[in-house]
Amino acid sequence: MDLVFGLLWLLTVFLEGIYCQGVYAPPTVRIMHSGQACNIEEERYTERVYTIREGETLELTCLVTGHPRPQIRWTKTAGSASDRFQDSSVFNETLRITKILRHQGGRYYCKAENGLGSPAIKSIRVDVYYLDDPVVTVHQSIGEAKEQFYYERTVFLRCVANSNPPVRYSWRRGREILSQGSDKGVEIYEPFFTQGETKILKLKNLRPQDYANYSCIASVRNVCGIPDKMVLFRLSNRTASPTIKLLVDDPIVVNPGQTVTLVCTTSGGEPAPALSWVRGTGALPEKSVLNVGTLTLPAVTSEDAGVYSCVANNNVGNPAKKSTTIIVRALKKGRFWITPDPYHNDDNIQIGREVKISCQVEATPPEELMFSWLKNGRALRSSERMVITQTDPDVSPGTTNLDIIDLKFTDFGTYTCMASLKGGGIPEISIDVNISSTTVPPNLTVPRGKSPLVAQEGETVELQCLVSGKPKPIILWSRADKEVPMPDGTMQMESYDGILRIVNVSREMTGSYRCQTSQYNGFNVKPREAIVELIVQYPPTVEPVFTEIRQGLSRNIVMNCRVLRAYPSRVLKYEWRLGSRLLTSSQFDSRDDTEYILRNLQRESYGEYTCDIINEAGAGRCSFLVTGKAYPPEFYYDTYNPLWQNRPRVYAYKLQWTQMNPNAVDRIIAYRLGIRQVREAGQQRWWEQEIPISGMIQKGELLTYNLTELIKPEAYEVRLTPITKFGEGDSTIRIVKYSAPTNPHLREFHCSFEEESICMFTQDKSDDFDWTRHNAATRQIMYTPNTGPSSDRTGSKQGFYMYIETSRPRREGEKARLLTPIFNVAPKNPYGATNSAYCFSFYYHMYGRHIGTLNAYLRLKGQTSLESPMWTLSGNQGERWWQARVNIHPTSSFQMMLEGIRGPGMEGDIAIDDVSIDEGECGDPPPNNLRSLAPPKGAHIWQLCVTLLLALFSHRR
Fold first, then answer.
1. What is the spatial distance between Cα 716 and Cα 710, in angstroms, rounded to a whole number?
2. pTM over 0.70
3. pLDDT tens profile 324-338
4. Cβ proximity of 216 and 158 under 8 Å
5. Which residues of 271-293 are buried (b: 16+ CB within 10 A; e: fewer)?
6. Among 203, 420, 553, 737, which is 20 to 30 Å from 228 by CA?
């Protein structure tokens, strides 16, 4: 007997596991569509395709279940962090794209996750359809052009139109439809890469009758309601490719501020060519004025310089193109350097030796650059001792040299290099160079105490090199590590006073900086250089920056603050505080973290704890908010709206929720319920009451509360706040909406699946694949031509039905289950038990040599496992619709389930249509009716009990 009671106890635990399991559930997801779709279909491999016309509005809704409420995210890839469309991902149920463009087509994914199991992901492929205006281009066979363009020549008319789906082209000559073989002088190309769709018309050895009007009609067969588009081209014996003339010089050299007018005219071409202007480097300047073939650029600047091209196009032959270059005169960047006697390696200017003064200027155009030299304000001419030369433009462009040979005392003075442009209109550039006994080469030093330079992050620092010499050279700053850029992102920075100023210095700028003399504005001698070390101190970086700790009274808490990095790395001390009160402080040892333990948590111990870790540069702070605040409740979304009607003007709602981490804090003693009507914000006051709670709430325990006296059809905002000894916890808000249930007290129900909502039918979550809504007009039977219906039950190809697609990747034995809504049964006697009879009927189509099985089940409320089917049928039933009728006698709220089982092959599609439930028994004896009476609620459990007991006694014997 002990064994018997043991087995019964195990059976009880097993059944409790079935009925009392927690309500936490991983997410599931389904994509619903609305808006202006042309077609929605299920392709092979269960991919859904949503077809929409360009310019229409795309609207997809992600329907999810799962508890806690899953977070929803729309992306254009399968959930990676780098996904982006329309610049970001969308984090709500509905994805809406108004005036969708062709590049916005693609595969969209809805991802739902709530921390339980794997995220649920569903995808839908959005196919954007469009058809652009066709363009006809005309070409002559190469090398056959003579006096007349088309006299006894072969001509090709090519028609191109961008489209999705692929376009189909047709040709007409006048009103005559041209086809391959209809005219010996006409050949129509059908290149293989266009999938047999025509687009090239070849006219062989032109005849007089070939000079005519040709029409190219582009068609996508009215897909998505896109009409055909046509373009007309008139072919005559005067048809010719375009020729143009540019009535401007090349190049055009102008001064800044002038207005430039570019004139382009057509000199030939039939039909008349269209003229346009383009700029070689990109778009035309915004200030451009374009009038047919004339382009005007007012008040030009250096930025307007470049190559401008006139293009003529009449779709005959290749476009004609001619170009001119606009050059805007300019002088800029005058520099000089002095080279002491290059033959003796001297670093000083010495009497009797040679000195070279070099002067460099950037000029546009470079060939107009002119130099002249002055000494003490007087013109200087080239002589035996004063040699003036101009460097080869390819070696050193825009450079002139003055060589002073056998330097004498009388040669000391001020030499001026003058640069100008031949055309004038541009101010001259003059550069003064002083040669005297005080002219000395440069010297470079770092001031005492300026290296190493220690600064704190965020400060402004100045790195300094002292430079001497006359004239004073430019200083070039760079990082000692040549691969590392300067703070402004360049590899080198100039300084005229030897100071490098860095604003808001950061830790990444720590390192060695090189200052060195430039040859410009100074001596052309071996560069002098020095190194400045920069050390940037920064306060400790710590973790965690902020943590919230929720804990009940009389428990222990351990808080830990860790140093990630700091400079100087020698941390001085740490300080733990509660608010402003110092708890403890100390020096750091060899560890890189510190912890603080709260033992036997008391009410006065709640608050914000901070840990400051301090070095010479400042402090890094860890913050811990210790609270006894309860976590928010989580409304239960994983069911149909628990909504019912009990009086004509009011309705009631069964509010369901679980508590997040109920054991983390003190026991929840009550919930504060707030409710108000959803109207204009701020217009309604909250009505509040407390819901007392006895005992401890378990994790995953489903709590319920009935909201009554809700006025139809108002929506209500509900707020739920947990309360502990600590006080109020975090609130959760949801909206309760009124929606009239489908036949709350069942009299009759009929569904022909014509609406997207499919009469609130749902797909079972535990099956292997889903039923698909379709009609014969859009179903692609090329994949499985010998199975499935050719119309709905009424014979309409436009009417919808539900079917199972058995093509790959489906396998034999896989199941798809479709569930009706849950129906409440109206009792005959208001004080007695329900004892109603209903007739469940539907039409089925089972055609194909691989047909599996179709089952119909009755499922009562609360039932978790399936009994034997109420109706079942297997095998090929021919290419027609049949009706099934089944008597059912539900004893409580119920729903019907239709189960399709895949047969041994792909020709096994099963379809259903026109499902109905009517009060009363079926009029005629129903065929294939295995059972007409449902078992009592829970009968399968007692059958399991009896089976186990029989097995037990057999074992005892």
1. 8
2. no
3. 999 999 998 888 999
4. no
5. bebbbbbbbeeeebeeebeeeeb
6. 203
